[in-house]
Amino acid sequence: MVKKNYDNDFKVMIVQLLKSGQKTKEVSEAYNLDSGTVNRWRREYEAKSGDFSKKRELSPEELELRQLRKELKDVQIERDILKKAVSIFSKSDK
C-alpha cells in the first residue's frame, strides 16, 4: 500500500466537514480515506489550533531523549555487526 500525502488545505476541508456535523464514516467513505486517518487529522487540527503546518516544539528533555534513543540504536546495530564478525572469524579459524 502506498502512503499518500495530502496537502493542508485538503485536511482542513475534511475537518471542517466533520465540524459541520457530518459523520467520520460518511466523510471517510466519500473521500476514500481511512476513518482512523480522518480522526487523527481532527485531533491534530484541534491540538494545533487549526494549523497543520505547525510542528510542536520539543522540550529539552524530549530532544535529549530522542538523541539518546538514536545513539542507543546505533550502538545496538554496531554490536550486532561485531557479533556477526566474531561468529564468521571464529568459524574460519577451525
Short description:
69% of the residues lie in helices and 0% in strands. By secondary structure, the chain is mainly α. It folds into 2 domains: 1-54, Arc Repressor Mutant, subunit A; 57-94.
Q: Categorize the overall geometry.
A: elongated
Low-confidence stretches: none
Q: Mean pLDDT, rounded to whole units?
A: 88
- What class would the helix/strand composition place it in? mainly alpha
Order of helices and strands: HHHH
Number of strands: 0
CATH topology group of the largest domain: Arc Repressor Mutant, subunit A
Number of domains as seen in the coordinates: 2
- CATH class categorisation of the largest domain: Mainly Alpha
The Rg value, from CA coordinates, equals 23 Å
CATH architecture of the largest domain: Orthogonal Bundle
Main beta-sheet strand count, sense and barrel state: none
Number of helices: 4
Strand content: under 5%
For the record, give the distance between the C-alpha atoms at the N and C termini, rounded to a whole number. 47 Å
| Relative helix content | 55-70%
